[in-house]
Amino acid sequence: MIRTHEAGTLRAEHAGQTVTLAGWVAHRRDHGGVAFVDLREASGVVQVVVRDELLTGAAGDLRAEFCVKVVGEVRLRPAGNENPDLPTGAIEVDASEVEVLSASAPLPFPVDAHAEVGEEARLRWRYLDLRRDNARGLRIRHRATRTIRRVMDERGFVDVETPYLTRSTPEGARDFLVPVRLQPGHWYALPQSPQLFKQLLMVGGLERYYQIARCFRDEDFRADRQPDFTQLDLEMSFVDEEDVYEVGEAVFRAVWKDVLDIELPQPFRRLPFTECMDRFGSDKPDLRFGLELVELSSFFAGTEVRIFAGQPYVGAVVVPGAGSWTRKQLDGWNEWARGRGAKGLAYVLVEGDGSLRGGVLNALSDGERSGLAVAAGAAPGDGVFFAAGPRREAQDLLGAFRNAAAREIGAIPEGRWEFLWVTDMPMFEPDGDGGWTAVHHPFTAPAQDRVDDFDVDPADVPARAYDIVCNGMELASGSIRIHQADVQRRVFDVIGLTPEEARSKFGFLLEAFQYGPPPHGGLAPGIDRMAALLAGTESIRDVIAFPKTSSGGDPLTGAPTPITAQQRKDAGIDATPAGLTEPS
Predict the structure, then answer these.
(1) Which residues pair with 231 in a beta bridge?
(2) Which of 24, 109, 346, 423 is 20 to 30 Å from 388 by CA-CA measure?
């Protein structure tokens, strides 16, 4: 080893020892004949005292991010000069040798955790960005995945890798496609998830499978999403929801305990999807604060207020203290709503004496004015903000406003963890063309009391599907799968998938399901989101080694890039397979 000790491990008990250290120069301060160098590496930082006679040759130009080796004696700092902010603050190293292992060019930005650096620059020089906080996010992520593997092993799960190069199957997003050079015109698809393979493993009798799996989805650009991401993927045979809940909670409880030393409650709370939407306007509600939705559909039945009249749903969020918001603030919320595709955000403010003012007040009848505050549960000084229209659309708007308003008034407590199972997720949703599509995936089982009639009225069928939500973020999704051939056929009928199309898309799975598939179900917690919560960051990019921007680009490598004409030819991208009339 180049070094005898790690810099951040030195303490007062090492005083008098001669040590060899290696790391990067974090800071250099010159004080007449001597320089104080903060030497940083993965274990931490220690102060090194370097006398001018050692600063010769390459060492004479010693500056930030030079990689150096230092030999010196550990000594106690003079009384009063200790640094209580550093674990090594009681000692320093009096250097007798300094060797520059490699020099550093001028830096594109300060390698300092407190320096303000734009994200584009951080990702462009990601390796320098990692030095800024000692790759803290990656270390937290490592601790989480280490715990996950332990929990899985303790419960008898087998770690199995599934293919990255497979065939295209519909799973809710577009596939990333890979041309096959040896079969021009044919393509592999990168898996959106290991869904079909893990079900095949259940048919194979493995019974308890998991992997920390890479997944690939070609989705439209969205903030804080990555085209390639990581999830804990697990599947179990001969189970129902309670078995999955127990394993899922065990994983999160162990991770939060090992990484943050926090005991999560057991069991997690549970709320059905419809209750989440009615109370919070979201299928991933943040339970750290109130501001619950209030339904006013009955109150406004027969109203002459144009924006409420005849609407199937009218709801509101009451915001404490919003009665004092300025006209500029209120106009800003209207612009916010328009930015989400709504016509605006109607409101009424409650005065200190209980009377109403502003917003849609003039459109209300006398009875509506006198009864609104009581119906909405609003107190003097509150603001009542409305949305009306189709139930789901209006609730989505109010749910988003609820979260934004809570941040505005400082209603979200720090250091609180609210985990929740969202249960009874919808099985189907309209596809926009008069038909239906599977909300989760077409192998999700219907609720047990709807097995016989789920295809009669698909609009109101709950599935045996569930999510884990924490502080308003979806962390995991899963379901109990269909294992009966007749039920699977009827699901395909609902979503308009003909037997021929089903065989074309899922033939290998359907064939396997002819040979006694067991009842099975699973869960897929997102590792990136989990690590981001643990690290206390709002962006999953902080816990990914080399992430892409929200537009899908990689500033570090320049990916994606065009390919040459020769590469297109070699890969057979423009080839037409036999039997097809158009290029693939």
Answers:
(1) 213, 526
(2) 423
CA proximity to 474, closest of 465, 487, 482: 465
Residue 236 shares a structural domain with residue 339: no
Render the burial of 512-525: b for 16+ CB within 10 Å, e for the rest.
Answer: bbeeebebbbbbbb
Residue 113's pLDDT is 85
Determine the distance from the C-alpha atom of residue 60 to the mean position of all C-alpha atoms in its chain, rounded to a whole number.
46
pLDDT at 580 (0 to 100): 65
The pLDDT, as a whole number, for residue 224 is: 77
| Predicted pLDDT at 581 | 57
pTM above 0.85, yes or no: yes
375-398 pLDDT per residue, tens: 999 999 999 999 999 999 999 999
List of E strands, 42-139: 44-51, 67-76, 91-102
581 inside domain: no
pLDDT in tens, 412-421: 999 999 999 9
CA 40 to CA 50: how far, in whole Å? 15
Same domain, 241 and 156: yes
Q: Report yes or no on 86 lying in a domain.
A: yes
Predicted local confidence at residue 482, as pLDDT = 95
Sequence-ordered alpha helix ranges (H) in 213-343: 241-260, 273-280, 327-339
Contact 534, 102 (CB under 8 A): no
- Pair 165, 33 in one domain: no
In three-state secondary structure terms, 68 is strand
Residue-range definition of the domain harbouring residue 319: 289-409
Burial 378-412 (b: 16+ CB within 10 A, else e): beebbbbbbbbbebeebbbbbbbbbbebbebeebe
- Measured CA to CA, the distance from residue 577 to residue 583 in angstroms comes to 8
pLDDT at res. 551: 86
338 in the same domain as 241: no
Cβ neighbours of residue 141 closer than 8 Å, sequence gap 6 or more: 527, 531, 534, 535, 543
Quick check: is 404 in a domain?
yes
Q: Do 241 and 307 fall into the same domain?
A: no
Which of 497, 519, 526, 552 minimizes the C-alpha distance to 235?
519
Which is nearest to 252 in space by CA: 414, 417, 137, 481? Answer: 417
CATH of the domain at 311: 3.30.1360.30
CB 494 within 8 A of CB 426: no
Give me the residues of the chain with pLDDT under 70, please. Answer: 170-172, 579-584
Give the domain-ending residue among 79, 102, 125.
102
Residue at 511 is within a domain: yes
User: What tokens appear for 263 in the block?
Assistant: 């005991």
Say how far apart CA 570 and CA 183 lie, in whole Å: 11
CB 387 within 8 A of CB 364: no
Q: What is the number of structural domains in the chain?
A: 3
